[in-house]
Every structure is written in structure tokens, then in C-alpha cells.
Specification:
By secondary structure, the protein is an alpha+beta fold. It is built from 3 helices and 2 strands, in the order αββαα. It has a two-stranded antiparallel ribbon. The longest helix is centred in the last third of the chain and has 15 residues. The chain is elongated and about 65 Å long.
Length: 82
């Protein structure tokens, strides 16, 4: 299928293509130059991670730290880097 490029360098992706690929208003498309042409690739948004999703990443096994303990550790680390 063919589309025409406007004076502003814009073109309309046909509705059938947008719907088949799940492209909605505001979707991001990556433009990649390939031999012989250009590839348009839909950038899929990643789901936002919540704190609960990330809690297990640290693998910390001790008792939970208080905010005061965390603040003190941050201050100590900052002093050690200076």
C-alpha cells in the first residue's frame, strides 16, 4: 500500500495497519534505516513497576531498617566517598 508524504514530512499510516498492530493515538514508533528502506516498529510501553514488584530484588535477609537507620547509612556512605 502507498501513502503520500506531506510538505511537513508527515504521512498517515492506514487504519487497517494501525488497528492490526494495536497502534493508538500517542503511540511511539521507532524509525530504523535498513538496507533498501525504512522499518517502522511500534515501541511497546513497559508496565510500570511497583515497589512490591521490586522488593525481592535486594535479597536482604536481616531485620527491616528504620528510616533513621537508612538515613544514617546514607550519610556515612556520602562521607566515605568524599
Amino acid at each position: 500500500m502507498r501513502v503520500r508524504i506531506s510538505t511537513k514530512g508527515q504521512f498517515v499510516l492506514p487504519r487497517a495497519v494501525r488497528e492490526a498492530r494495536g497502534m493508538v493515538e500517542g503511540a511511539e514508533v521507532e524509525v530504523v534505516e535498513v538496507p533498501g528502506g525504512v522499518l517502522l516498529q511500534l515501541v511497546r510501553a513497559t508496565d510500570a513497576a511497583t515497589l512490591d514488584d521490586l522488593v525481592g530484588c535486594a535479597q536482604y535477609q536481616g531485620r527491616p531498617k528504620t528510616l533513621d537507620e537508612m538515613s544514617a547509612a546514607i550519610r556515612r556512605g556520602a562521607r566515605e566517598r568524599r
